[in-house]
Task: structure prediction
Amino acid sequence: MSPIDRLIIEFDTALRSVVGGANSQRPAPGAEMLSKTVLDTQERQHAAGLMRVNHVGEVCAQALYQSQKLVARNPEIQEMLNHSGQEEMDHLAWCETRLQELGSHTSYLNPLWYAGSFAIGLAAGLAGDKWSLGFVAETEKQVENHLESHLQKLPQEDHRSRAIVDQMRVDEIEHGQAAKEAGGVPLPEPIQKMMQTMSKIMTSTAYKI
Result:
């Protein structure tokens, strides 16, 4: 693939992440449960807020994986990041579809989330592959915890959203493990705390906007 072809593909990925229209290679989980999901107005709004937060997380994931791929020094690591990034694109498409089914919208601040995450991912990548992979592993660990909490918060009758979130959780665990096995090192605790703080700001904002 030529550099220009790669640039076009990455630009298309970025555009779909920010404005919508993501494509998934795997079908969205829980399709057979859609007809069984009956929610009242309050439950629908709450589920939409949580799925919007999840969608923002996937927008950030695309930015992180794209930026880290750009500066990864090892071709095998680039391929690992590319594989994980494609599965994250599945997540992005699933969340977008679910938001449409719930009659809601993605976050209006997606361009901001994408730009900020791209800058952070680039900085992590420039620090070196072991730190970049360590950043991926820590990010995925925090996302895993975040998704587990959403499984507790989603309406019990929202089987469709639950199926999507549960499969996302499984994939995130695999991505984090792959980053560790590829040589990722634990991040210093202050950086972990900073990431947790930024995540709280993002989730509380994206739930509403």
User: Anything to note?
Assistant: The CA atoms of residues 108 and 209 lie 6 Å apart. The chain has a mean pLDDT of 86. The chain has seven helices and no strands. The radius of gyration is 17 Å.
